[in-house]
Amino acid sequence: MITLEMIYVITGLLLVLFAIGTLKDKAHKARISSAIFWGLYAVTFIFGKQLPGWLSGLAVIVMVVLAGMGKVVPGSIKDAPVEKREERAKLLRNKLFIPTLTIPIVTFLIAQFTDLGALIGLGIGSIAAAVAAVLVTKDSVGNTNQEGRRLLDSIGTVAILPQLLAALGALFAAAGVGEVVAKLVSGIVPANSVLAAVIAYAGGMALFTIIMGNAFAAFAVITAGIGVPLVIVAHGADPNIIAPLAMTAGYCGTLVTPMAANFNIVPAALLEMKDKYGVIKTQLVVAIPLFIAHIFLMYWLAF
Amino acid sequence: MISLIGILIVVLGLAKGYNTLAVVASAGVVTGLVAGMGIVDILETLGNAFVTNRYMSLFILTLPAIGLAEKHGLREQAAHLIGKIRGASAGRIIILYQVIRTVVAAFGLRLGGHPTFVRPLIAPMAEGAADKDAGQLDTRKQELVRAHSAASENYGNFFGQNIFVAAGGLLLIKGVLTELGYEVDLLTMAKYSIPAGIIAVVLGALQMTLLDKRLRASTSQNQDTVSRGGAR
After folding, report:
1. Cα distance from B232 to chain A (closest Cα, Å)?
2. What does the pLDDT look like over B165-184, one tens digit per residue?
């Protein structure tokens, strides 16, 4: 049976291929340090489960140092020229969508009809898509690797940011940061105002989500520290109603924080945007009114 | 209170534009130190969390397929396809995607839309439509269209997902509240997640309509035009 660990190993092996490609790229400006970065990343994927935690942690620190010193840069593979791409598009037309659509379709089929789950589905779908891409374009497997490396290079070291932020969250949790924030917020709320309590709960969720980059991480702490004592117990809110609203109020925070890197920063890099905060800035316009709407929804529906 | 120093480091570090990875790692290490953790403890926590969350980076597996398809003109074909539809504009395409994405999320499909849909399909389609509808795309307009495309993926994903009765978020809520002594019902919570989903679509539609207005109104002052398909 295919396990998630196998998918991680395959991802790691792909990164090894990228590292090797980086080493062999003669025109690369920093091939050794870049190859070490991707190689270490590969190690955390392949051996993550076996290695003692501190060794993985050390590998991450080395990666961060390399990246921080500017030693990990894109290689010399360029986009194919526009004329070439247009020419190929005219030839292959809608068959080009087959590899792209294979990913979500296979992910869905596996998640729906087997008990392997969406993550393994994504892994299998990606491999199927790569095969489909080679068959449709009749290009070589070597070039497939090249193009993958080109894309990963353009995303850059920011690819590891989501996992690193999860690690930061774990350290915050260990240090009790959430409890401190909850205490601070609940300390300034007047005891008899329902509206103030609601704002404290929603605001606490959004604020701590902005800090942690993840509403799931915020929910337990803020609900225990603010939601239950100040809103559910003190004013009798229905948990069935106020809790999911608090969660999506937290998601409003996710829209505006660089800490939610996989939603806000990595996509900006993936889309080759000049402004790495461009997605966040755009989302502010919706996040703020949507958050205010949550206050009203909580106030009107939950009591 | 001193445990909040990590937050300060992140805020100041990002504001000053230092390398994001270095800022985050430093904040983590300092937080661990002020919490009385030893260096080995800190590395242990860091490493374990990093490895546990490998699933966040599985999008890397999609890169070879998408990269190869792009080399052979995937984005050009997407733009070309949109060009054949009359009345297509960047805003309309993006809002349509947000609606679809919300509905799909509400049915429990977790798609990871940024590498799978936004980069290879939605953004190039929106750029192609903007090119036709609002005049030749320059870098500034291209940035706008890309940012809005990514935003719609997030709006649809975040505010559609909890409408699904077995959503991860709802299961977490149930778990936390049960621990705290409260019985909650998944179906009820899913229903009460619908208003936010609808409001998110409405606000998104407003924002995308504004996008179209902005794209049409601005004329390209500089000669910095970009080739179709939005390549670098």
Report:
1. 8
2. 888 899 889 988 988 889 99
Q: B-chain residues within 8 Å CB-CB of A64? A: 21-22, 25
Task: Let me know: does A11 contact B58? Beta carbons within 8 Å.
Answer: yes
Minimum-distance CB partner of A180 among B4, B109, B207: B4
Q: Which residues 7-46 on chain B approach chain A with CB closer than 8 angstroms?
A: 7, 10, 14, 19-22, 24-25, 27-29, 31-32, 34-35, 37, 40, 42-46
Chain A nearest CA to B221, separation (Å): 19
Residue A224 CA to residue A229 CA, distance in Å, equals 7
Which residues in chain A touch residue B47, judged by CB atoms under 8 angstroms apart?
44, 51-60, 167
Count of beta carbons in the 10 Å neighbourhood of residue B96:
16
Q: What is the ipTM of this complex?
A: 0.87
Q: What parts of chain A have a pLDDT lower than 50?
A: none
Rounded to whole angstroms, how far apart are CA atoms B99 and A107? 21
Unique residue bearing structure tokens 């179709």 = B228
**Region class of A81: left (phi > 0), else alpha (psi between -120 and 50), else beta:** beta
Residue written as token pair 């190689």? A39
pTM: 0.85
pLDDT of the residue at A134: 93
Give the DSSP letter of residue B163. T
- Can you read off the two tokens belonging to residue B56? 């966040």
pLDDT in tens, A34-52: 999 999 999 999 999 999 9
**Tokens 């179209």 -> residue:** B212
Q: Which residues of B touch A211 (CB under 8 A)?
A: 7, 10
- Closest to A247 (Cβ–Cβ): which among B116, B162, B203? B162
Residue of chain B with shortest Cα separation from A101: B116
Interior/surface letters A160-176, b for 16+ CB within 10 angstroms, e for the rest: bbbbbbbbbbbbbbbbe
Radius of gyration of chain B (CA): 22
CA-based nearest residue to B157, from B204, B203, B101, B202: B101
Contact yes or no for B229 and A172 at CB 8 A: no
Q: What is the pLDDT of residues B1-26, one digit of tens each?
A: 788 898 899 889 888 888 989 999 99
Give the number of other CB atoms < 10 A from CB of residue A47. 16
pLDDT tens for B24-53 read 999 999 999 999 999 999 999 999 999 998
Closest CA to A212 of A167, A243, A244, A180: A167
Which among A212, A247, A130 has a CA at the least distance from the CA of B189? Answer: A247
Quote the pLDDT of residue B3. 82
Tell me which residues of chain A, numbers 184 to 213, contact chain B at a CB-CB cutoff of 8 Å: 211
One-letter amino acid at B194 equals I
**Least Cα separation, residue B220 to chain A (angstroms):** 18
